[in-house]
Write a structure and sequence with these properties.
Elements: E1 2-5, H1 17-28, E2 37-42, E3 46-54, E4 63-65, E5 69-77, E6 80-86, E7 92-97, E8 102-105, E9 111-114, E10 118-122, E11 126-132, E12 139-148
Antiparallel strand pairs: 1-10, 2-3, 3-12, 4-8, 5-10, 5-12, 6-9, 6-11, 7-8
């Protein structure tokens, strides 16, 4: 897992050309002018999902991991709490759904706050729980860049 400010994104370019392209997209796009939706960057290999939503109680969010895609999650507006577990420490509650590319897990208890203009990178071995409220429910705008795993 990676957690940093978008202004430091270039430090992570060496993680791969698709990750670099995804981070450059996040750095160069004004998301206040972008509608919610899915945007292709490099076809199905690299695309962005822009979403506006209300943060939820921890008990109402899921813990998940993906096999086909790496998630770069960028807080374009607002703040939320995210959970993280190493996959070796997680207990599966729902087996892999290949069509939707996720496995669900029993909730963990390791959380951190992600503020506006910060991002995370969750790899296939990172179980994560996004969308959690920090103190009370707030509207946020988040961009999830999906990076195809080679």
């Amino acid at each position: 897992m990676v957690y940093d400010k978008i202004e430091n994104a270039e430090k992570y370019y060496p993680l791969g050309s698709l990750i670099e392209k995804g981070l450059r997209y996040l750095q160069s796009t004004n998301f206040s002018k972008i509608e919610d939706g899915t945007y292709e960057i490099v076809g199905k290999h690299l695309f962005a999902i822009v979403s506006s939503y209300m943060t939820k109680n921890i008990s109402d969010t899921v813990w998940e991991s993906h096999k086909k895609y790496i998630d770069i999650q960028f807080m374009a507006n607002g703040n939320e709490k995210m959970g993280h577990l190493n996959i070796q420490d997680a207990e599966i509650t729902q087996k892999y759904n290949a069509e939707k590319d996720f496995v669900l897990y029993k909730p963990g208890n390791n959380y951190f706050d992600v503020k506006q203009n910060e991002f995370t990178i969750f790899f296939p071995w990172d179980v994560h729980s996004p969308g959690n409220l920090i103190q009370d429910t707030r509207e946020v705008k988040k961009v999830v860049v999906k990076v195809k795993v080679d």
